[in-house]
TrEMBL record:
Protein's name in the database: EamA domain-containing protein
Organism lineage string: Bacteria, Pseudomonadati, Verrucomicrobiota, Opitutia, Puniceicoccales
UniProt keyword Transmembrane present: yes
SUPFAM superfamilies: Multidrug resistance efflux transporter EmrE
Matching InterPro entries: EamA_dom, EmrE-like
Cross-referenced Pfam families: EamA (PF00892)
Gene Ontology terms: cellular component: membrane
Length: 293
């Protein structure tokens, strides 16, 4: 992976961690409302520029739309699952494991696309996965079976499959769209718009379509910018990267950033095992970047 797409991915992890901190600040039980407001505002603010650009100078060819729609469906499933995990207040377990699983799954898809990661690349990806799983440990103890294979099973699998699906689809679509940041932004809008439709269909949050006059505009707008910006950069990076598995693995750097942000902004105390997780992720990413081919 060259330096520029790597820079884009690392920058995206900062934005991604930022909007997750915003979501946590909103409170676990009402995070679904926060997601809803972000998606609504994204659809409303981006509709005119995205449609105008696509009509005036089509950047997304016809053959890429099926992949885009499929990716958006996976996005909606991911958001619905994540919202459910927040509501059950098991996000610290569900989120890192759901982020870990797609690293391996997407790497397997790379094999079928004749972009198989190198042996050391696989090793780095496995170490990153282990680091993600370490994050889910509580006070240095293993995650209980009842937590993972209980009420959290459905959101965990939904988030993992959703992430795997949209990562594979978007990597394939990146080879079809016009290369550049503008096409990535237009693609990102329609991807999120489709995801919003699916999210509301799954959660049946019809009441949230009504604009609340007491809405905290600034936090929601910040969430829109952080969420959109994070994945826009990833989509742009996909256009310059051949192996989606490496991109997904590098995106886990957001967990490292998230730990730091939790200390700085949420004043959380980070247990020692979480620093072990951070170290594992860093080592895995170093192996991928230096020896992954």
């Amino acid at each position: 992976m060259s330096l520029f797409p790597l820079f884009l991915i690392l920058l995206s992890t900062i934005l991604h961690a930022g909007w997750n901190v915003q979501a946590r600040r909103s409170g676990g039980k009402v995070v679904g409302l926060y997601f809803s407001r972000i998606l609504i505002m994204t659809v409303l603010l981006g509709a005119v520029p995205a449609i105008w650009v696509q009509i005036s100078s089509p950047l997304i060819p016809a053959e890429a739309w099926l992949l885009l729609i499929a990716s958006g469906i996976c996005c909606g499933v991911y958001y619905a699952a994540l919202s459910k995990a927040y509501a059950q207040e098991e996000l610290n377990v569900v989120y890192p494991i759901a982020r870990a699983i797609p690293v391996i799954f997407v790497g397997i898809f790379d094999i079928f696309l004749n972009e198989e990661p190198s042996l050391l690349g696989w090793g780095g990806m496995v170490i990153v996965v282990l680091g993600c799983i370490f994050v889910a440990f509580r006070s240095g103890e293993s995650v209980s079976v009842s937590t993972v294979f209980g009420p959290s099973t459905v959101p965990l699998l939904g988030a993992a499959l959703g992430t795997t699906g949209y990562s594979v689809m978007d990597n394939a679509a990146a080879e079809l769209v016009v290369t550049g940041p503008t096409s990535a932004a237009v693609y990102c809008y329609f991807y999120l718009a489709t995801g919003a439709f699916v999210y509301f269909s799954i959660t049946n949050r019809t009441a949230f379509w009504k604009i609340n006059l007491k809405i905290d505009f600034v936090p929601v707008l910040a969430g829109v910018i952080l969420n959109f910006g994070a994945y826009w950069l990833v989509l742009w990076a996909y256009q310059m990267s051949s192996r989606a598995g490496y991109v997904v693995a590098c995106r886990q750097f957001s967990i490292v950033v998230g730990v730091i942000m939790a200390i700085v902004f949420l004043k959380e105390r980070v247990p020692s095992h979480r620093w072990l997780a951070v170290g594992s992720i860093m080592v895995g990413l170093f192996i991928i970047l230096v020896w992954g081919k």
